[in-house]
Amino acid sequence: MSEANVAPAVSPTAAGTPLVQVRQLSKHFGGVHAVDHVDCDLYVGECVGLLGHNGAGKTVLTKMLSGVYAPDSGSILVRGEEVHFESPRDARAAGIETIFQSLALADNLDGPGNLFLGRELMTKWRTLDSRRMEFESSKVIARLNPNFKNILDPVLRMSGGQRQTIAIGRALYFDARILIMDEPCAALGPAETRMVLDTIKRLKAEGIGIFLISHEMHEVFEVCERATVMKNGALVGTVLTKDVTQDDVLEMIILGNTPAKALAA
After folding, report:
1. CA angle (106, 110, 115) in 5-degree steps
2. Does one domain contain both 90 and 17?
3. Are the CB atoms for 217 and 228 separated by under 8 Å?
4. Taking the CA atoms of the chain, what radius of gyration do you get in angstroms?
5. Same domain (yes/no): 208, 244
6. Residue 242 within any structural domain of the chain
7. Do residues 181 and 242 both lie within one domain?
8. Are residues 58 and 111 in the same domain?
């Protein structure tokens, strides 16, 4: 599939109020400082890479953004308003959806069955409205991948890229404007990875903001305007990917060094 045709990314310095602002966010588990006074932002139509070794704190950070954990201190603002999530349902109501590496799909169900899993559309007689779910699924999937036609197959028979599309489509149908994507290209082949990266570009062109967790530096540099690096629960720094090299970011991840071109918090 050819590369997505997208509008230029908006510079974070000129993008107005961020979709998400994280200010001095902290989470402790006993004596372990999983996230320690971290700041980061996400703007409309932007993809920010969240990077760091396993145990760096990025997963705990995203779980606070998605309502799984409550912060011990600090604040989260969505579109300039401070929010307090007591559950993932609260985060979804604020427009934040998380697409986990496992995708949380039911292998025996088809695309519409998974897209509406737990939120099925019903007829006036309180039976499943399968026809409407198929129609709505077709519309949202066409936005992401016009070549994806076999949505009525069980997802067990779908490719990894198609499964990712179903998971992303589920988020978009329910009005997510902020996506957290956890290793979306893990275990995918080159063609499927290309499909997912092109989908990310389409989402950004629609004004959706994305936090991307990835260990693949070339993916980060292709789709992310900025990279935020964590180490041992603390923020190392945030950089514009256009201003640094992959080696610069690797040094941040491995050594915890803040480059001269790191952005001010």
Report:
1. 70
2. yes
3. no
4. 19
5. yes
6. yes
7. yes
8. no
Enter the pTM of the model.
Answer: 0.87
* Same domain as 191, residue 166: no
The residue from 176, 191, 225 where one domain ends is 176
Distances in whole angstroms, Cα of residue 260 to Cα of each of 74, 217, 236, 239, 247: 26, 20, 12, 9, 14
* 3-state SS assignment for residue 156: helix
118 with 166, same domain: the answer is yes
Would you say residue 143 lies in a domain? yes
* Count of domains observed in the chain: 2
Q: Which residue has the tokens 């062109």?
A: 205
pLDDT tens track for 30-50: 989 999 999 999 999 999 999
- Taking CB atoms within 8 Å and a gap of at least 24, the contacts of 156-161 are 156/107, 156/108, 158/111, 159/192, 160/187, 160/188, 160/189, 160/192, 161/188, 161/191, 161/192, 161/193, 161/195, 161/196
Q: Which amino acid is at 117?
A: L
Is the residue at 4 inside a domain? no
Residue 8 in domain: no
Phi and psi at 117, nearest 5°, equal -60, 120
Closest CA to 232 of 211, 216, 253: 253
3-state secondary structure of 32: strand
pLDDT in tens, 110-163: 999 999 998 899 999 999 999 999 999 999 998 888 888 899 999 999 988 888
The domain boundary, picked from 176, 202, 220, lies at 176
Structure tokens at 111: 């695309």
DSSP three-state, residue 246: helix
The CA distances from residue 29 to 54, 63, 233, 236, in Å, are 16, 14, 11, 21
